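Re: the 76-residue chain
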Amino acid sequence: TLTLDEQKTITSIEIGDENFAETEGMGKKALEPEFQAQFIGKTVPLTMDDIDALAGATVTTTAVIEAINTIAAGIN
């Protein structure tokens, strides 16, 4: 779930749902509040340089950024 303001700045984010199936201790860290909090206040589109990637989970981090950018691109 992603909420953006009028300037496409992230005001809230919730990563994952009941189908989230990432590796414990790696990609699953995307569910941690500390990882998600770093997106708040960032303006989309985002790149990997905009956030602290999950160590050992570059694919997950990239997927989160791509999902955010895809959602934002669909908002007029």
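The longest helix spans residues 58-73.
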